[in-house]
Amino acid sequence: MKAYTHGGDILTAKMGFQGEIVDFSANLNPLGMPESVRRAAAAAVKGAVHYPDPLCRVLTEGIARRDGVEREWVLCGNGAADLIFRLAFALRPKRALVTAPTFSEYQEAMEAAGSEVVYHRLTPDNDFNLTDAVLEDLDGRLEMAFFCTPNNPTGQPIARGLMERILERCAGRGIRLVVDECFLALSDSGESGGLAGYVKSYPNLLLLRAFTKCYAMPGLRLGYCITSDTGLLDRLSRCAQPWSVSAPAQAAGVAALQEPLHPLLARQLIEVERRWLTGELTGLGLRVFPSAANYLLFQRAGVTDLRERLLKRGILIRSCANYVGLTEDYYRIAIRLRGENERLVRALKEVL
């Protein structure tokens, strides 16, 4: 069975610590799930005696209106990861490019579909920033390329000018461009930094977005993609079960669309707490990388068991040992509320 390598594995963590666990391993909105979203999901359970809408019509209409795109360009899925795997098996590209380090499911999905994965390496010398050097790797041998902005786990966004050059290069060379914007709503730029306005002009562009992070609802599994290539959306639909999005997830998504201030309020809090945490961690001798997102990547050279040390004190962080391009002494933490962040700092002082 495939090993679980992502954050948020509370059940396994509880096997090593019996008390309350503060989860810094999952990059969720620190304000939590809006109460209106919780109520909507709970109410939808009463209707679970019926199948959910296989087309997610109400939800899709709301997403299209909110994101400023055509309804026919939106497809919902059981989280963004569901859509990544659908994409892999629908197109089965011979060769796909991903950056390193980045979200591992791009690589996992491509390899599961039999694709060759090539890496564009990001380096700590440049704070893991993506530069124009990536344009040389976008050659005619590629059929697909994945980019994440802000990147996971580095928190670095892709500069708009570079993103436009990537768009042009991929369009000119027939490369399907997949841009993961799942953390965008909680980043400094907010969704205004997204590429929804480019979808019409670039049919080769597909955007991945999700409710998981910005509305703290990972257990409900709800993501979506946007592309003007309706033929591709049809193929993605054929690569999924008929009822891939549950009724509670659809209801929660519709309710979340009525809470536009929730990510905004979180961004304001995240900016303050990220600056404070960066200073505290740097003062403890950790190398903290610049981030524009709701999480921080840091390194403690030579310390490979920091996750285990902290878990003994009820703190769960994300080891980045499984990320291509990182080593066992890299870790990622989510930005949480001040009291929880202070608890993390106290625990770090104890174990270091």
UniProtKB/TrEMBL annotation:
Q: Does the keyword Lyase apply?
A: yes
CDD domains linked: AAT_like
Keywords tagged on the record: Lyase, Pyridoxal phosphate
GO MF annotation, one: threonine-phosphate decarboxylase activity
Quote the SUPFAM superfamilies the UniProt record gives.
Answer: PLP-dependent transferases
Which coenzymes or cofactors are required? pyridoxal 5'-phosphate
Query: Which top-level group of life is the source organism from?
Result: Bacteria
The EC number(s) this enzyme carries: 4.1.1.81
Where's the Aminotransferase class I/classII large domain?
21-348
Keyword field contains Ribonucleoprotein: no
What protein does this entry describe?
A: L-threonine 3-O-phosphate decarboxylase
Which organism does this record belong to? Intestinimonas butyriciproducens
